[in-house]
Amino acid sequence: MTHDSALERLRGGAEPRNHDARTIAALTANPGCARRGIMDAAGVDKDAVARRLGFPAPFGQSQFAITRGNAFEAQVKADGCAELLTLLRDRLGLDVPEVAYDDLEVVAGNESRELRHARTRRLLERALSSGEGTLFDHPLLRLDIAGQPAYLEPDVIAFQLGGRFHIIEIKSFAVIDGQAEPEQVAAAARQSAVYVLALRRLLEELGAPAERVSHEVFLVCPENFSNRPTATPLDVRPQLAVLGRQLARLTRVEQIVGGLPDDLTFELEAEELPDAVRTVEARYAPECMASCEMAFFCRDEARACGGTGVLGKAVRDDLGGVDSIGTALALADGSLDPSPDLAETAERLRTAARLRREALTA
Amino acid sequence: MSVLSSLAQLEAVATGRAQPLATVRHCHVAAEPLVMVPLKLAGEAAAPLAVMLGTERAEPTLLVVPQPRNRDLRFAFAADLAKLVLEYVESSRGATEELPPGKDGEERVRYGGAPQLLVPNRAGVGFLRMLGRSTRFRRTDGPYAVDPAVPRLGRWLTWFADRHDKPGACLLMTMTETLRLHWATGQSSLEDGNLAALLGWIDPPDGLDGPAAAARAEDPVTCPPAGPATDPTFDNEVLAPAIAAYDQSGDDRAEERVRSVLDGQLRPTWELMWDAIGLLRALPEGASVAARWERDRDSFTWYHSTFDESHPQARRDPAVRAARRLHDLERAQDAYDAQRAFDDPLVMAEHRLAGQAFGGVVTESEPTRLDESGRRPKLRPHLRVATEDPLQLDVGTTVCDAARPALKGKIIEIDAAGGVLLELTGGMGRKLVPEPGVVPEPGRRVCFTSLGTGSWGAAKFPEREDTPWTHGGPPEEYVPTDEDAAEEWS
To answer: What is the top-level taxon of the source organism (chain A) (predicted)?
Structure first.
């Protein structure tokens, strides 16, 4: 059985779910998790699976936040990205020559992704050879994720800033007195890195050097408490390195698939869905709650088998390699003799238990 | 985090109840704290939606912005909030005590009380900081005039948020962090960020254990989030229609509807906050808590008495002030860590596990030993302590008695059997015979540590006009501008 047909079987015949920059960025979060790796590689609809298993993911977005985000983006892009150009010229002092604005969203009324991508490709090719074009709105890029094409929509691509392409990411979180929430900036940087990578791949296909896509992206956010946009350059080299490494490792999926039963499927209607999911090992950590739809199911599973991982990385590290809560407690109260490699951890646990006892009974 | 607190978490999992991380309370809990539960509008930096606040559990005040995108309504909310907060700040002062004059003879006073704000979580502090930032530069005259109370509120909120950064300060505390200082649960720190889940582990309702109570707390319908972020489903299905109805009619009934749905979101957290205060009050207060609260009162006294002649806090600290502030925070952290250890054997246990303290039974004691090698004899009693602790201190290290830090000594010898020989050097009185009962007798349990009680001295920083060129040279004097006052708040 070929790799692709194995993945199709895992999906249970359903259409593969599309990756977007957010889900691709999330791939870098917990690379050691085989369950997530397989499900993402196969394009399984994890949200539907989790709901079916009785552990729906609580990822909702408030309409207030969506409205605000859309309004801000529309404002920045209004009149052929007029505000954006002003920002790039004035605020960042960039030499933005004559402006050409291309909106790539609608292609002759036919909006298939393949066509839109082809048009993006054509325009960028023209830009490379002739130097034409300044801003490309609604471009559609493609990135292969474990053999599946994922279509990605960066906010804007700017060209001819020093002869290089720059990804421009518009976000509606505020930059106040030059500072924004670090988590939100980090998430934006991870997403932008996905776009940079996809654009670099495209340039390579067109025979141009990947370096013509800058690792510096521009983050456009509201300034202070106003709706006025401000632009900040962001170096995404670290995120690019992580992303490149993790995507390369996704090929590992083939090995995992090879070790799975031949008839395994995550078909939603299948009665044995919970068992099928459990067949593939997960590595749950509390951080999963922020990015993976399966998190609640995996947490429940990890709790049921008493894994120390559910308490977080710090606890896991403190326990120096003891994976089970029961084992750690038995080592601490001396009822279990440690294997030689756990002798040191056991010693610390016993001391800790004695000190706690002394302090609490004093 | 350490093996000790990790072990407490494992025990919590095994027993289904939170386990203590402290034997005493390490924070001051005011007789009348001002509890505040703020909510903000999703997607906005600092658009207030509502706040429930008050000093009495039975009498919360609810302030609401029925259309959070309306600037006038926002400032009306800020003015209402300002009146309540400023009134509370004034009422918390109490009687003024006269202190002995300072070194250069200046008069010194200290207010008998200070305000204490309690919010559910760190994000709540972040929101107050932002609310402070967006209101403190407002002008009370000219084209963008606001109620005079608004910029005052902004400056006070900024000050409170600033105080929260100082380790051990109790002027603005978050409930989740404070509870986590005293209890370990069987869930991760991420899940502990949910006040309802955290309290579920510490004090589960009748008939539930910790995990069951925490699971219940994760359902946003039974336990709405403690803010300032709201539950997206609530936003979409309940709040948005209520605000839309207000937009349409603008009448009292529509406003009452917005109030009532927000009241429903805030009320459960309000109750949890007071439950948590009750749990904290039930713990005996640590010995150094009163002294730290005195520092807080000093800080409040200074800010309050210089309030009228000072500017709103600048957007960013100039170099010298930033360096000084960082230095102060580091000193405060050091002192706070040490004080907690001396106050609480369970915290000291962390230092014992790390090898910076050791406890055990006195096996030999020579309380009247004299060192006669010098010109005058000195009282230098010897003490041998048998310990099983993983000691990391070297011979020659100065240590003090955890129970009576004035009693100091030096490690003379560490024998193979886990005995530590100490030579006591101070804290026994002025005579050649120690004060009775000071030198521990054989059989006594003792604990000695290399931690010091005093904080290290304050470093010297240049005056602002002497800021070195490496740090940008002397900064410009900050003068509030019209631009500050006119800043958009949309």
So the answer is: Bacteria
